[in-house]
Amino acid sequence: MTAPASATVCQGCHGVHGEGNAPASIPRLAGQSAEYLGKQLEDYASGDRANPVMRNFAKPLTRADIEAVATYFSTASAPRTVIPSTASAAQLNFGRRLARQGSEAKRVQACDSCHGPDGIGVLHAAPYLAGQSAQYLTSALTSFQQRTRKNDPGKLMTSVAGQLNASDIAAAAAYFSSLPSSIP
After folding, report:
1. Is residue 182 pLDDT above 60, yes or no?
2. Residue 175, C-beta contacts closer than 8 angstroms, at least 6 positions apart
3. Rounded to an integer, what distance in angstroms lies between the CA atom of residue 65 and that of residue 73?
4. Of 75, 86, 99, 139, whose CB neighbour count within 10 A is largest?
5. pLDDT tens digits, one per residue of 28-63
């Protein structure tokens, strides 16, 4: 599929095929659901997801532009850039436990219960986490934790992240970033 003209500006940061830019905390878009991507663009445009840079890019998009961009990146295939992890085995194990079991003590359900086994995503429900950069995941979780990101339906992510500390967030982010993306 050829990228629509409205995706050109997105490609400048997110990559030609939506591969993302881990060092800059820019997420991988390739293969994420069109529904999720469209909602995020709408939320940036309306200010429901606060990010001044993204708002400037999303606000001028028409509904047709948003649909075209979301469809393009949802069907895009991009190689995964592997960033060597600095996480310890203990940190990765703790992240795996949070992902698969959650934490009863913190009253946090397993990430996998919404985001699918090993964070592969659940169509129409939750984005994939597997293969996203630790930098982006840390940024996203911290935004939910600090209640600066408010665009999650039912405030589930705000509630979950609010129970986590910086070590928990780092462990979960390191674990999911260590997994291969289920999307080529």
Report:
1. yes
2. 87, 92, 94, 95, 96, 98, 99
3. 12
4. 99
5. 999 999 999 999 999 999 999 999 999 999 999 999
Q: If pLDDT is split at 50, 70 and 90, which confidence band does 79 have?
A: confident
Tokens representing 42 are 């709408």
Question: For 65, what's the count of Cα atoms within 13 Å in the CB-facing half-sphere?
Answer: 15
Q: Are 91 and 170 in contact (CB under 8 A)?
A: yes
Backbone angles phi, psi at 21, to 5 degrees: -145, 90
Cα gap 66→60, rounded to integer Å: 10
3-state secondary structure the chain: CCCCHHHHHHHHHHCCCCCCEHHHCECCCCCCCHHHHHHHHHHHHHCCECCHHHHHHHCCCCHHHHHHHHHHHHHCCCCCCCCCCCCCHHHHHHHHHHHHCCECCCCECCCHHHHCHHHCCECCCECCCCCCCHHHHHHHHHHHHCCCECCCHHHHHHHHHHCCCHHHHHHHHHHHHHCCCCCC
